[in-house]
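Quick illustration, no need to memorize.
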Amino acid sequence: MSSAAGLLLAFALVSAPPPDGQPQAPADTFRPDPGWKALGPSLWFDPAKRSLILRARVALREGPLEHLLCLKGTKEHEAVLATPAIPRQIHAGLLLTGAEPGSTVRFLPEFKPPTGPSIGIELQWEADGKTHTADARQWVFDDKKKKPLDIDWVFVGSGLLDDPVTKKTVYLADDGDLITVANFASSILDLPFASAADDASRSFSANTSQIPARGTPVTMILRPRKSRPAGKP
């Protein structure tokens, strides 16, 4: 997506209970910092740390993945986390951190992997009366390497499409592809290498032992990496 299109988006700003035997999700005691700027539902910008704060809930603890994060009510069957935050506002919030989107995956006429600035993602949640933190990559298991994901997501920026019927401009990530581990041209954040979405080729699964109870509220903190090239752990 071009910088001009990104700026247009910036200006546009202004669950079921767990099965028996599964741990119960804790109550949500989250309170936003007064210094944060509210961007929309479950979304804030921290100007002091130039970070995007996003709230989500655990949707999936085991099984193959296509997403770390999806839009609530869309793809929870293949995403660890789901959020009600509005996709185009997530994009605009990332622009506020200073990140500039790169390019989404290209499949034709030849494959070109996603590109963009590396984005670090920290997760925070409550369990057993304590606050826990983790790098989001620890919640995604690389089935080929037999270890957690060790490469950052990159800000690719999804895309815009003019609907010929409604004559409206559609932001592609509105379909739910927010932070993906399989390559989609609609992703906001994607992995900077080839990662197929078909069942036979999927490479990632939920790292169950690291993920808290389904329904657990999670605070996601996104910020550009400093002096870390895309594709490097």
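The first helix runs from residue 3 to 11.
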